[in-house]
Write a structure and sequence with these properties.
The chain is α+β, with helices and mostly antiparallel strands and 363 residues long. Helices cover 48% and strands 16% of the residues. It contains 15 helices and twelve strands. A five-stranded antiparallel sheet has the order 1-5-4-3-2, covered by helices on one side. Helix 14 packs across helix 15 (353-362). The N and C termini lie far apart (49 Å).
C-alpha cells in the first residue's frame, strides 16, 4: 500500500529547482509522463529502502506518495517532503484536516501505517507465495515466508520485528525480484481469487527493552514461533550452514533474557561471539559488552572484557560505554579523562543521548 498527501497549486513544478531548495539530499531516480500526469520517483541515499513518488496531475493537483514499507527515517521525512513541496508551489505551509502536516503525520500515524502494512503482508503470505513492494527501490522486489524464516521471523512475529528485518534485507541487498511480465501474470492470477484471511496475531512470550539514540524506549517482543525458529537456525549454524550474524545475536538475546529458554550467560556469550564472527559489529558487540558489564547467570561481571567487546562495536552506544570505561578505569589503569571524552564526543556526534548528557555535565 501507499500513503499519500494531496497538494493544490496552479504553479508548474520544476523538479530540479525544487530538489535544489531542500536541505537534504534527495535524488531523482526516474521520471515519466503519460496522457494524464507526470511522475517523479525520488530517494534519499543512505536512508531510503523504497521510493517516494510525486505525481503532477496537471490540473492543479499534486500527490506525494510513499511506500508503507518505508524506513522509520522516511516516515519522519515524508511530511517534510510534502511541506517543502507545498511551500515551493504556493509559499504556504501544508495543513491536513486543519492540522500541521507534522502533527498529522505523527509517530502514532507512522506506527498505524506500518501496522496496517505488516497486517496486509501477513494476510497475503498466508495465502500467496509473494508480497510485492508498491514503490520499490529495485523493480519487482517481493518478500516470501521463506525469506523471513531465514531470519527467524514468521507470521506470528511482532510488527516491529517483521518490519525491522524487511528493512535489514533491503539495506543489505538480500532481495528477490520478478520481471514486469511475471508480476502482471501473478497479479492477474491472484485477482481472480476472493479469499477471506484472518491476520496471524502475535502473542508475546517475552520482551527485551532497548533505547534509541535519542533515549526513547522501545521493546523487542518474541513469540513462541520466533524462539523455535531461532533455535532451529542455531542448530543449522552448528551444522555448518550459513546464518546471518544478526540472527545469531537474537539467539544470544534469548539466553541472556531467558525468553523461551533458561537464562544462560555462557550460551549468550557463545552466540554473541559467533554473531560478531559472522559480521554483526553493531548489536552483538554491544550486547556482549553489556553481558560482561552486568554479568548473567553464572557468568561473572568483567569490566575488562566488557571494554574489549565494546571496542569491537560500531554502535554509538558502545562508544559511550568506552568513554565510561576510560573515565572509571575499567582496564585496571588510572582514569583517563582525555580518552574518555574523546569517545564521549564520538558518541555525541552520532546523537547518543547519554553522551550528550555527559558532555553537558562537564560544561
Amino acid at each position: 500500500m501507499i500513503q499519500q498527501l494531496e497538494i493544490q497549486s496552479e504553479k508548474t513544478l520544476d523538479i530540479d529547482a525544487f530538489l535544489q531548495e531542500l536541505d537534504v539530499t534527495l535524488t531523482l531516480e526516474a521520471e515519466g509522463t503519460d496522457a494524464e500526469a507526470a511522475y517523479y520517483y525520488l530517494r534519499r541515499p543512505d536512508y531510503s529502502t523504497s521510493l517516494f513518488l510525486i505525481v503532477d496531475n496537471r490540473d492543479g493537483q499534486f500527490i506525494v506518495c510513499m511506500d508503507q514499507l518505508a524506513t522509520y527515517d522516511d516516515y519522519r521525512f515524508f511530511p517534510y517532503l510534502a511541506d517543502c513541496l507545498n511551500y515551493h508551489l504556493s509559499g504556504q505551509r501544508l495543513t491536513v484536516d486543519g492540522r500541521s502536516v507534522y502533527e498529522y503525520c505523527s509517530e502514532d500515524w507512522a506506527a498505524q501505517c506500518i501496522g496496517d502494512e505488516i497486517a496486509l503482508l501477513k494476510s497475503t503470505l498466508s495465502v500467496f507465495p509473494k508480497y510485492y513492494q508498491v514503490l520499490p527501490a529495485v523493480d519487482g522486489t517481493y518478500f516470501t515466508k521463506e525469506q523471513l524464516a531465514a531470519y527467524g521471523v514468521g507470521m506470528t512475529s511482532s510488527t516491529p520485528r517483521i518490519h525491522g528485518y524487511i528493512q535489514y534485507m533491503l539495506r543489505n541487498g538480500d532481495i528477490r525480484t520478478s520481471t514486469a511480465e511475471e508480476m502482471a501474470a501473478e497479479m492477474e492470477r491472484y485477482s481472480r481469487k476472493e479469499i477471506v484471511v484472518d491476520v496471524p496475531q502475535h502473542q508475546s512470550i517475552g520482551r527485551v527493552k532497548s533505547w534509541q539514540l535519542d533515549g526513547s524506549e522501545t521493546w523487542e517482543s518474541y513469540s513462541r514461533e520466533d524462539v523455535d525458529m531461532l533455535l532451529a537456525l542455531g542448530e543449522d549454524y552448528k551444522q555448518g550452514r550459513k546464518v546471518a550474524g544478526v540472527v545469531l545475536n537474537d539467539i544470544g538475546t534469548l539466553y541472556q533474557e531467558g525468553i523461551g529458554v533458561d537464562i544462560s550467560g555462557e550460551l549468550a556469550e557463545y552466540w554473541f561471539t559467533e554473531a560478531i564472527r559472522q559480521g554483526d559489529r553493531l548489536y552483538a558487540a554491544s550486547n556482549l559488552g553489556d553481558l560482561y558489564r552486568k554479568g548473567c547467570g553464572n557468568l561473572p561481571v568483567s569490566l575488562e572484557k566488557a571494554l574489549v567487546a565494546y571496542r569491537q562495536s560500531a554502535d554509538p552506544y558502545a562508544f559511550y560505554r568506552i568513554g565510561q570505561a576510560y573515565e572509571e578505569g575499567w582496564d585496571g589503569n588510572a582514569p583517563d579523562l582525555t580518552k574518555a571524552f574523546t569517545w564521549y564526543r564520538m558518541a555525541a556526534d552520532k546523537g547518543h543521548h547519554l553522551a550528550l548528557k555527559r558532555l553537558n555535565e562537564r560544561r
